[in-house]
Amino acid sequence: MEALGRFDRLEERILRLLEANSGIAAENKAMRDALADKAREIEALREKIDRLDKEKGAVKEKVDTLLARLDSLV
Description:
There is one protein chain. By secondary structure, the protein is mostly helical. It has one helix and no strands. It has one helix at about 1-74. The longest helix has about 70 residues, at about 1-74. The chain is rod-shaped and about 110 Å long.
């Protein structure tokens, strides 16, 4: 009879471990998904920075051109 009780406790512990494992696996997947989202967000921000740097360069070039034209008028 005592062996049956020990077996029941063992079974209960195994079930708790399996439940914990399932929870950890779900949390792991959620974290991996969040990490992938952040990686995509970082890439989008890098592309935006590149685009803004190019725009900044174009604006600077136009301003320099206009200033040079103004200097030639004076």
